[in-house]
Design goal:
Low-confidence stretches: none
Structural class: mainly alpha
Distance between the termini: 57 Å
Number of helices: 9
Length: about 180
């Protein structure tokens, strides 16, 4: 049987969402493979966590790529669509706050994932549709912070994904001083 890295990463995301300190043995068991098989793909637990981090950030980036370069569509509609898609990634993101820092490589993946949102925010600010006194980097960080809060609330069963997405968009736009047309 050929074991793909994606199979291991999916199992790791599921296990680590419940237990961030999970061992490679428990991840292997969840994937239905031996621990040795994991070691053939990922030499250490840190290597597995790094690969999972990169994979998760690439998935976030794929969703963020849906943010248009222009502001022709209603920003509430755009952000609601993107946020709803991001809500589905919640279980894959839980461990991002507990893994050790990986340095510039992981930072670059974060930057790549957030770039479309940054361009969109800057365009909205240039059109006087968002406050200009808040730096783009701050607005991106606040949006990501709200995503993590929403993912936590979904995981705790306090919010459904649609409600969480709505709250993220409403809260973020209100804080940005969004001026609708």
């Amino acid at each position: 049987m050929v074991v793909k890295s994606e199979q291991i990463l999916d199992a790791a995301a599921e296990v680590l969402a419940k237990r961030p300190d999970a061992t490679l043995q428990s991840i292997a068991k969840a994937a239905g493979i031996s621990r040795t098989t994991i070691f053939h793909k990922f030499a250490t637990r840190d290597a597995l966590l790094e690969a999972l981090s990169v994979d998760t950030l690439e998935r976030i980036g794929a969703v963020m790529a849906r943010v248009p370069e222009t502001t022709e569509r209603d920003p509430v509609e755009v952000l609601t669509e993107v946020t709803q898609l991001l809500m589905t990634l919640g279980p894959r993101t839980v461990f991002l706050r507990v893994v050790p820092g990986w340095g510039n490589d992981l930072d670059q993946h974060w930057a790549n994932a957030a770039t479309p949102l940054g361009v969109y925010i800057a365009t909205l600010q240039a059109e006087d549709r968002l406050r200009r006194d808040q730096p783009v980097r701050w607005l991106i960080a606040s949006y990501i912070g709200l995503l993590f809060a929403a993912w936590d609330e979904i995981a705790e069963g306090e919010l459904g994904t649609a409600q969480a997405a709505r709250l993220v968009v409403q809260t973020w736009l209100a804080g940005c001083g969004y001026a609708s047309d």
